[in-house]
Protein 1
Amino acid sequence: MAADEREILTYESFGTAVRELAQQVVDSGYEPDLILSIARGGLGLGMGLGYALDVKNLSAVNVEFYTGVDERLDVPMMLPPTPDAVDLAGLRVLIADDVADTGKTLEIVRDFCADHVAEARVAVIYEKPWTTVHADYVWRHTEAWIDFPWSAAPPLVRRDRAGSATAG
C-alpha cells in the first residue's frame, strides 16, 4: 500500500459497520450491560451499538493521544471526568472505539476497567496489524490512514488551549 493511500469511511459505510459489528457481538453471545465509548472517535460507534444491541447504559471516557495525522503524544492521557469505578462494578462492558492503531488508548481504558468489571470486550471499526490490543470485534483491517466522515473536513473554528474560538 502506498504511503499516501487512505481508507475512506463514508457515513453510509459507517452505518453498515455499526450493524455488522453489532451482529458480531450478538453472534458471539456476549450481552453487554454497558457500552463505554472512547471519545471522540468511539462516540458514534457507541451510540449506534447501543441502539443495535438495545443497551441504554452508555458512558464515555476521554483519552487524548492523537494530535494530528501520524502525530501523537508520548503516552495517552485519560482526561476527566472518568466513569466512577463503583458504577462499573460487576458489569459486562463493551468498549467502543473507531480504530485500534497503536493499541495504547485501548490498553489504558481496558486496564482502567480490568479491576472493576465482570468482563470487558472491545469493538472497533478498524484495526491496524501492529496494534498491541486486538479487539474482540473488528469491522475492517487496514494499514492506511483513515479518513472518517466526521473528521474529513477541517473544523469550522480552531480552539486554543483556553477554549476560545477563532474563525477558520
Note: The chain has a mean pLDDT of 87.
Protein 2
Amino acid sequence: MASFFQKLFGSAATLPALAADGLAELGADMHSHVLPGLDDGAENLEQSLELLRELRALGYRKLIMTPHIMGDFYKNTPDGIRGALRALRQAASAAGLEDMTLECAAEYYLDEWFGPRLERGDEMLTFGGEKRYILVETSYINEPLNLAETIFQLQSRNYQPVLAHPERYTYFYGRFEDLVKVRENGAMLQVNLNSLAGYYSAGAKRVAEKLVDAGLVDMVGTDAHNLKHTATLRDKVLPAEYMRKLLALPLLNNTL
C-alpha cells in the first residue's frame, strides 16, 4: 500500500518534507509509555497529559500505550494497566482531548518470568483485536537463547509476536541475516521512529535504515517516555530522509 505522499509525488527521493503533523498518516502509535505511574515513562497524570498534547500535535489521534511488564522490576498487571488507562481517559476528557482514542497493551520483557506466565495461560495484553499482536522486547546486549522457541510458543497460542525496536539490540549488529530470520520465523518487527534520527546510537540508526531499505518494517512506534522523545520526533525525525522512505512502506499502524 503506497503512502499518501508517494501517490502524490512519486518516489521517496522526491517526497517533500513532512508537515508538523506528518505522523497523522500512520493513524495509530502502538508503542509508548504514556500511562501514568507504571514504569519509566510518565510519572503522573500531568506528565501523561503533556505527552498526549505533544503526540496530538504530531498528528496522532489513537494511542495504544504499552507499559513495561518486566520480572521483579515492573510488576504491572492487566488490571493495574487498565486502571491507569481509565484514569488517563477521564483526565484527557476533562482536558479537552476527547478526540484522542486511548487504548492499552503492554511491552513484555522476555525474561525468566515470561515463559511460566505463558505456560500458565495468564492473561496477556494484546492489541489489534483478533490479530492478537503482542509486543515483546529482550535485553539490548544479551541475546536470549530461547528467542526462536518463544516466538513459536506465542504463535502456537494464537498470538502474533511483534519484536519491539530490533534496531537497538546490539547482539544483532553485524548479523543482519539473523535479524531477517527472526522475521521469517514469524515475529513482526517494530522500529522506533527516533532511531531514524540517531537518538539511541549510530548503530541503531544504521540498522533502522537497513530495515527500511529492505522493506522489513511492519510497524513503527514512538516509544515515547517523555517530552525529549516527542521533541526529537518533531525536530529531527519528521525532516529525516528515511522518514519519507518509511511512510512508503505498507506499515500496519493505520490498520489498528
Note: The two ends are 15 Å apart (CA to CA).
Protein 3
Amino acid sequence: MKITLVQLRAFVAVARERSFTRAAKVLDTSQPSVTTAIKQLETGLGLKLFDRSTKVLSLTKASAAFLPGVERILEDLDATLADFQAAADGTQGSVAVAVLPSVATVVLPDTVKSFSAAFPKTRISLRDDNSSGVCERVLSGEVDLGVAGRTDHIAGVQFDPLIRDPFGAVAHKSHPLAQEQGPISWDELDGYPFISFAADTGLRPILDTLTDIPENVKSPWIEVSNIATVLSLLKTNLGIAALPKMSVNPIENDVVFRTLLNPPLFRELGLITRPGRSLSPAAQNFVDHMKVTLRPKWER
C-alpha cells in the first residue's frame, strides 16, 4: 500500500469542503488533480471514501471513522514542519554563549533583552569564564560562541573584534587620584602602589605593550589573576590599578574610574568561534544582532 501526503491532504480537504471544486481551491490545485488523488487513495485503501450524488457529497461510514486520525497526523506533521522551519531560519532554537564576567554584567544585558524581544522563541544560555575558559568552551563545543579578549596565543579559535574597551586608572574613592574627575595620564600614576595582573592573564600582555610609563606600573606591587580580585583590593585602598572600563560596574560606589591618556590604551573584545564550523541559524541571528548593538562601542 502506497499512500502519499498529497492523497491524504486531498481527502481531508474534500471531507471538510464537501466539494471537489472547493477542495481544489483550498489546496491551490486543479479539480482533476484532487479527483485523481482521491481515486488513488481509495484504490490503495481498498475502500470507498465518499458517496456521490448530483447534489450531495458525503463521507462513507468507513472514511468518517478514518478522517479524525488523518487530521491528527497532518496537524502533527504541519506543526513539526513549522518547528523545523523556525529552527532553520533561527526564529526558534537555542544559543549558548561563553563570556567574560565583565561582558556578562555590563555589555550583554541590553543585547540579550533586545534579542529576546526580536526572537522570543530562542533560548539563551550565558556562561561566564576568563578568556582561556571561554576559548576552551568554544573548542569543546560546549557553547556555540564566545565573547572574550584577543586570543592570538590560543590555537584553533577565530577572533573577530566587536568592542574597544578603554583602560583607566581605578582607585578607592578616598585615594588622592580619585579626588578629581576626567582623564588622567600614565605619568600621574607614578609613586603609588600599583596592582596589576599576572603574566599568564589576558590583560597583562596589553599593559606590557606600553614602554614610556612609570616604573611602579612596569613592576607592580601586587599581581593577581582576575579583575574581581583587583577590585576587592582597591576597595580596601591598598593601591591603584589600570583596568578596562567595562570591568568596573558603573553603579560601583567604592572606586573611581578615570580614563588613561598619553597614550590611550584599549582592550579589544571580540567574537570567539571555531573556524570552518558553521553556526546554527539561532546562533547566527544572535551574532548578527550583537554586532549591530555593540557596533557603537567599537566606534567610540
Note: The radius of gyration is 32 Å.
Protein 4
Amino acid sequence: MVSAVNQPRAIRTDLAAAPGGHYSQAIVHNGLVWISGQLPIRANGEKLVDAPFEEQAALALDNMLAVLASAGGAPADLCKVTVYIRDIGNWPAFDALYAARLGAARPARSVVPVPELHFGALIEIDAVAAVVAQP
C-alpha cells in the first residue's frame, strides 16, 4: 500500500491537449514524471493531423514539454523519450526539431516506426523525467 505522502499525483495543464480518454497527461511518483503520449493536438482540442510532419512533430514536442514543465521539470530532467512515427523517412526532420527544442539535453531515446497512430497522426511522443517531488 502506498502511503498518503507517497501517492502518485496527476498532472494537468491547459497548455497541452486535455486527455481524450481515461488517463492523465502525466503522473508524478517517487521523483519521476511519466508523460502520456502526446499527439499533434492543440490545447484547444484542434487536431493537426492533416498538417505537414514538421508542424505535427513541433506541436507534439511542445505538448510534451508543456506537460513536463507543469510537473516542475525541464528538458534537462528528461530520462527517456519514446517517439512513434508513421514514416521513418521523417526521422531526420524530427531529429532536427528535437535537437532544437531540447538543446543540450540528451535523454535516452527510441524512435519507433509504426503503421498508424490515433486520429491518423504522423507522430506521438511519451517520456519519463526525474523531477523534484512536490507535496
Note: The chain is about 20% helix and 25% strand.
